[in-house]
Design goal:
The chain has 421 residues and is an alpha/beta fold. It has two domains: 180 residues, Alpha-Beta Complex (2-enoyl-CoA Hydratase, Chain A, domain 1); 199 residues, Rossmann fold (3-Layer(aba) Sandwich). The strands form six sheets. A six-stranded parallel beta sheet has the order 3-19-15-16-17-18, with helices on both faces. A six-stranded mixed beta sheet has the order 6-5-4-9-12-13, with helices on both faces. A two-stranded antiparallel sheet has the order 1-2. Helix 1 crosses helix 2 and helix 9 packs parallel to helix 12. It is globular, with a radius of gyration of 21 Å. The mean pLDDT is 95.
C-alpha cells in the first residue's frame, strides 16, 4: 500500500492507496526557508528596487495588509518598515494599518492578533476595510478597461501609502503581489466587480501576468491610487520565507515573478484520471471561497469525466453569504442552472464562486472532504465525503481500468502546466 498525507486545516488528512497505483505528486519545488528571515526582510527594505523615496517626518502613513486568508509573514516583513519610518521621524500615531479584505468577511478587533504581532496592535491604529461602505470610499475615475476605481478613503488620505503581501499564483490574476492587496483589497464593490468580471477573458489565467487583462487592470488601478512602497515575500510550501522584495510595486513584480514561476510552476505530462488535492491547509482552506482556487488549479490537469477529491476543512463555511443565498435558490438544481442564471443576472462578485465551481464540477466529479454539513455541500453542487479514505475508495470503484492518480498537496500555490499543450 501507498501511504498518503495531505494538508487539511491545521493538520493532515491521511489515507492509503492500493499497491501498484500510478501516483504522481505535483507541488512546488522544495526549497529550504531562509535561515535569517528577519535579515533578508531588512535587506530588502533598506535596499529597495526601483525609484522610491522614504516617508518624511510629519507625513501620515497608511499600510495595507492582507487578512487572515493569506499567510503573510508580517512578523518578519513589518519590523524593518516600521523601524525605517521611526528613523525618518514618522510618529507612531501617524501610522494606520488597514486590513485589505476586498469582498472577504471583515475581521473583528479580537481577530487582529491572528495576523499582526501584539506589539503592533498595541502601538498603532488598526482598521478593517469594508468594500460596501460607500461613505468611506474615494472615487478616482476609470481605468482604460472601464473599471470604476473607488478606494478606501483613509488609505487615499494618507501622505504615504505602503502595501504588504506575498507573490504567489492566482487563478485568474496570474499572480498576487505588488499593488493587488491595495488595488483590490482596499477597493469598493464596483471596482472589484468590474475587474473580476475579466476572469472570463482567455488571457486571465493562472501564471499569466504581462498579457493578463485582469492583472494589468489591477496595475493601472495601483498607479491611480499612487502606492509609494511595497514589501512582498515568496514562501515555500511550509509558508516560510525564502525571499523578500521591497520598493516600487511594479519593479517588485518584474523581479519576483521569475523566482515565483521557477518555484511554483510544475510540468505535467498528461491529465490525471483521479486528482487528490488540498489547497495547502490553513488558512488556504479556511472556507470554500479560498479552497475553490486550489480546485481550479487542480482541475486544469484533471481529465474530463475524471474525478477529484478536494481536502479542505472549511471551518468558516462558504466564506461569502451572497454565494450561499444565491445557491440556495430552489431553481438551481445543477451546473447548467448555475451557468444560465449567472449569464442572465450578470457578473457579481461573491456568486462568481458558483460559476467557478460549476465550471470545473460540470466536467469533473468533485468530492469534498471537509468539516461542512453534507447537505450544505450538496447545495453547493459538490459531493460530500466524511474522510479521505472513503473518498479514495469510492473514486477507485468508479474509475475503470488503470487509473492515473495525481496528488496536489499545495494546490493553491501550484501552477501545473500540461506539457502536451
Amino acid at each position: 500500500m501507498i501511504k498518503l498525507k495531505v494538508p487539511y486545516g491545521k493538520g493532515y488528512a491521511s489515507a492509503v492507496l492500493p499497491a501498484g497505483c500510478s501516483v504522481d505528486f505535483v507541488w512546488p519545488r522544495q526549497h529550504s526557508p531562509s535561515a535569517k528571515p528577519d535579515a533578508i526582510a531588512r535587506e530588502a527594505v533598506y535596499n529597495p528596487l526601483g525609484d522610491v523615496k522614504p516617508p518624511r517626518a510629519g507625513q501620515t502613513v497608511a499600510i495595507a495588509i492582507n487578512d487572515k486568508t493569506r499567510p503573510v509573514p508580517h512578523e518578519h516583513l513589518l519590523p524593518p518598515v516600521l523601524q525605517g519610518m521611526r528613523h525618518a521621524g514618522v510618529r507612531d500615531e501617524d501610522v494606520t494599518f488597514i486590513i485589505a479584505t476586498g469582498t472577504h468577511p471583515g475581521m473583528s478587533p479580537d481577530e487582529f492578533s491572528v495576523i499582526l504581532p501584539r506589539e503592533i496592535i498595541e502601538t498603532y491604529r488598526v482598521l478593517c476595510h469594508d468594500a460596501a461602505d460607500q461613505a468611506n470610499l474615494t472615487a478616482l475615475g476609470e481605468t482604460s478597461r472601464g473599471t470604476p476605481v473607488v478606494i478606501n478613503s483613509i488609505y487615499m488620505a494618507a501622505d504615504y501609502r505602503i502595501v504588504i503581501g506575498n507573490i504567489e499564483p492566482h487563478q485568474f490574476q496570474g499572480f498576487s503581489g505588488g499593488v493587488k492587496s491595495a488595488a483590490i483589497g482596499l477597493a469598493g464593490l464596483p471596482t472589484i466587480n468590474h475587474n473580476h468580471a475579466m476572469m472570463r477573458d482567455e488571457g486571465a489565467r493562472l501564471g499569466e501576468y504581462d498579457l493578463n487583462p485582469a492583472r494589468q487592470d489591477v496595475e493601472e488601478i495601483g498607479r491611480m491610487v499612487g502606492i509609494d512602497f511595497a514589501v512582498n515575500a515568496i514562501l515555500n510550501t511550509d509558508k516560510q520565507i525564502i525571499k523578500a522584495l521591497a520598493g516600487d510595486p511594479f519593479a517588485i513584480m518584474q523581479a519576483g515573478i521569475p523566482d515565483a514561476r521557477a518555484l511554483y510552476q510544475i510540468p505535467v505530462a498528461e491529465p490525471f484520471d483521479l486528482m487528490i488535492a488540498s489547497p495547502g491547509g490553513h488558512p488556504k482552506d479556511i472556507n470554500i471561497y479560498q479552497s475553490q482556487k486550489g480546485m481550479a488549479h487542480a482541475a486544469s490537469v484533471t481529465c474530463s469525466g475524471g474525478r477529484m477529491i478536494l481536502c479542505a476543512a472549511c471551518p468558516e463555511g462558504s466564506g461569502n453569504s451572497d454565494y450561499e443565498s444565491w445557491m440556495a435558490d430552489p431553481r438551481i438544481r445543477g451546473h447548467a442552472d448555475v451557468f444560465e442564471r449567472f449569464e442572465r443576472d450578470g457578473f457579481q462578485v461573491g456568486r462568481h464562486k458558483a460559476f467557478q465551481v460549476s465550471r470545473d464540477a460540470a466536467r469533473i466529479h468533485i468530492s469534498l472532504v471537509s468539516e461542512l454539513d453534507a447537505d450544505f455541500v450538496r447545495a453547493l453542487l459538490l459531493h460530500p465525503q466524511s474522510d479521505l479514505q472513503s473518498a479514495i475508495d469510492e473514486a477507485l470503484e468508479q474509475l475503470p481500468g488503470a487509473v492515473r492518480i495525481g496528488v496536489m498537496p499545495a494546490a493553491n500555490a501550484t501552477i501545473p502546466v500540461l506539457e502536451s499543450t
